Amino acid sequence: MSFVYRTRYKDVPPEVVRIAQGFVLDGLGVMLAGSTEKGSRIIQNYLRRLGGREEATVIGAGFMAPAGRAALANGVAGHAMDYDDTQLSTSKEAVYGLLTHPTVPVLAAVLAVGEASKVSGQDMLLAYILGVEVECRIADAMNPRHYQSGFHSTATIGGLGAVAAVGKISSMRPEPLARALGIAASMAGGLRENFGTMTKPLHAGRAAENGVTAAELAQQGFTSATNILEARRGFYSAMGGGYDEGKIAGRLGRPYFMQDPGISIKPYPSGSLSHPAQDLILDLVRQHDLRAEDVDSIEVGTNSNVPNALIYPMPKTALEGKFSIPFCMAIGVIERKAGIAQFTDRKVREPKVVGMMRRVTLVVDPELEALGYDQVRSRIRIKLKDGRTIEGRADVARGHPQKPMSWAEIGEKFRDCARLALSRKDTEEAVELVANLERTRSLLPLIRVLSGGKARAAKQAAARRPGSRKWSSTRKR
């Protein structure tokens, strides 16, 4: 963990900082939106009942909690809509779906500990960048069997990135940081069978919480194996049957994963493997001015890993709809949109949507299968009732590094998410604060805006309350 300990803010290329600010804005947006979801509310109520020291803000909920529990709640919120970013792989051999949703577990942990420790914007950005780098390199090196056999890598590997980020905020030296990684690795878990349920976002929340907990235990002298990744009975071997050493040894920050191969920002609040097809159906519908009554059938062709993740042919809830090609195609035709307003229980159950879903088939396309799994290539064939056939192919979706979103586009997504939790004034102030994060002396103004003022009284009360404390840290002041 020497890379994490030794890297300073000035060592990070300015382009990486710029890219990271976009990912942070996107991550905060999906946390705000997700904080309003039923699963997030259940977690928030659960934490209220537990009580504890008021160290960090639970975004969108108006109360404070111990840092680890705030990380749990904000991590759950960030993944609740399945709208957070996705990591790409460095090789054609790796299954696209193997890799992680990198930002939320790391960012949720950084926000919680950063608020409790009153760090600067630069400290926050550096910790976030290093945590994502560690997370992405570990995930990239993991044997694809890890994901294929049922592990959700955001859950299992996200906590390792979170612990690296928290360790940086806390100025942990390499040896205790290695112990923290060992602790977090043994806390890792999360199964893909839970896709389409509230437990999937719980994976991201637990990963963030595990990072905070493992770092604090290690700082207090808690022991673990310090070779947890590569050991014969360690993380890579037990959870994936091995790893590719060449994808991690000497690769940290050379270049940063955010630059190459990159991370995709989600244009739609659904499983990322649906996005090229979602992009394509919207393009075809608009280009040909198609209506639901024009369509006889829709065939979506992909590689064999897509049906392994998009598992609901006839979803009954919005959570299931996020992992359903038939639903994604149906709203594309009927709504001509695929935003937060489309992924609701009511939309999934609308008779006209159900009728359109029955006309959609997902198949493995031999030509696309032969091209490998490095991209989620999708082909759509629409048979019309007048006998015509319309078709197209998309290899990537908007937000992919090959088709990146601008700062303005990320800002629009943030605004669409934030409107569920913040006033317009607070939303615009949040965008401005993130844009200038490297020049801010404290995270507290950003946290205040993200809480919409709801937590101000709680913060003041916590500061006056006997026994209030900062989060445990070895940071030199």
Using brief descriptors, characterize the structure shown:
two-stranded antiparallel ribbon; 2 domains; 60s Ribosomal Protein L30, Chain: A; 477 residues; 4-stranded mixed beta sheet; 21 helices; alpha+beta; 2-methylcitrate dehydratase PrpD
What does this 3D model show about the protein?
The protein is α+β, with helices and mostly antiparallel strands and 477 residues long. It has two domains: 2-267 and 402-464, 2-methylcitrate dehydratase PrpD, CATH 1.10.4100; 272-394, 60s Ribosomal Protein L30, Chain: A. The protein contains 21 helices and eight strands. The protein has helices at 2-6, 14-34, 38-50, 67-79, 103-117, 121-141, 145-148, 153-169, 174-187, 199-219, 235-240, 275-288, 318-321, 325-334, 345-349, 351-357, 366-370, 407-418, 424-435, 444-450, 456-464; strands at residues 56-58, 63-65, 86-87, 263-264, 295-302, 360-364, 378-384, 389-394. The strands form three sheets. A four-stranded mixed β-sheet has the order 6-5-7-8. A two-stranded antiparallel sheet has the order 1-2. The longest helix has 21 residues, at 14-34. It starts with a helix and ends in a 13-residue tail after the last helix. Residues 455-469 have low confidence and may be disordered.
